[in-house]
Amino acid sequence: MPRNLLVMIISSLGFFFVTATTFTSLGYVLYTMVAELGWSQAAAGFSFSLLGLACGLSSPLPPMMMKMFGTRLTMAFGALVLAVGFFIASGIQALGFFFVATSLMGIGFSLIAPSPAVYLLATWFPNTSARMIGIYFMAGAAGGIAGPLIVETIVGASGSWRMHWIVMAIFALIYGLICLVGIRDAMKVESVEQVTNAGASGHGATGASPWTVRQALLTPSFLILAFAMMVVQTVVTTMHSALVAHVASLGVGATAGAFAMSLLAFAGTVAKGVTGALSEKVAPKHLLVGGLALQCGAMLMLYLVRVEPAVYGAAVLFGIGWGLSWLSAHILLLRYFGAAIAGDMTAMATMATTFAVLGPPFAGNIADTTGSFATAFLAFAALLALAFFSTAFLLRAPRRPGDALAESAELMPAE
């Protein structure tokens, strides 16, 4: 098998694995752990927050390690860190050790995906990197769909959440060995920037912009988009941590919750897949506003209706809204501020979404106090409504004297 194809397969497998075993399936495992160990929902939510926080804070680590040790050892070490986190989780009794475990899972995630893989694909496939990176992200999305169902199968068959963590730890070690055997750099990593800028070529990321990053950060347009992205990520993160427990509280069992999580991931994946094409015919602002409205409606459904079919419908609506709003917000950043600084603007907006880690413990605390997540869903519906109205009525392409970029952004297609 050609080396570049082997690298592609191993990288995609890694993204599938880390997505399936962390963010999208942790909510299911937490539900069974909370019931057995007597933890509060707030504590469970905080462990989920630590996973996301560790993942975000460790994101600068992969480029530095790749420069020092190469991508192969970086990804293999990430698999080892994941395995350690999983093994700790399999034997815990005290909550503090689980916080350590989820933090290690977040670090392991960053060391495996997506930064190292995007660099590998950009260098191994210089002429078709955009297509290969797209396939790679589809593999990660597939992990989100399969993850909850895989966990439900393991826990259901073994009757133990501890067995799930042991199985995942073994698979993490196996993946680390696969990385050692199959991953190779097409070119040596000489600098951190070489990794962070990978994949930018061929996407119009060159050329001058009429904006400086500092000017763009102070525009109302950026602040509104960053707020919308922060709200969306906060609610998405909370849904991953709370949906299974909410569905189980309806008396239909955790299996239905796992199915709802997979429906959400599937709908989000499909929506993200079509949003790029839709944005060429429909104004991205309209897609963003529509996506926020769908998510708000889904939150209201979860608050008002307590029957299983309604939960499935809410999961699908939320997934579609998530896919539409998340990708359209990134498209608007590109169109408003230009490709030359789009990476910086996206990084700054993504930094704002770090506040999303507050969502799971907030919802968990409400569930501990009221006995239900319903009030939390209502609060998130209000937050999404605020993002909806600010985006619908206040968001405009930023204008500067002689700024042709803003005028063209308004016309592709017109808002």
Short structural description:
This protein is mainly alpha-helical and 415 residues long.
Descriptive notes:
One of its GO terms (molecular function) is transmembrane transporter activity. This is Major facilitator superfamily (MFS) profile domain-containing protein. It comes from Sphingomonas sanxanigenens DSM 19645 = NX02. It holds the Pfam family MFS_1. The protein is mostly helical and 415 residues long. The chain has two domains: 1-203, MFS general substrate transporter like domains (Growth Hormone, Chain: A, Up-down Bundle), CATH 1.20.1250.20; 207-415, Growth Hormone, Chain: A (Up-down Bundle), CATH 1.20.1250. 80% of the residues lie in helices and 0% in strands. The chain contains 19 helices and no strands. The chain has helices at residues 3-21, 23-37, 41-57, 61-69, 71-91, 95-112, 115-124, 129-158, 161-182, 192-196, 213-217, 220-252, 254-278, 284-304, 308-337, 339-352, 359-370, 374-394, 404-410. α1 (3-21) runs antiparallel to α7 (115-124) and α13 (254-278) packs parallel to α15. The chain is globular.
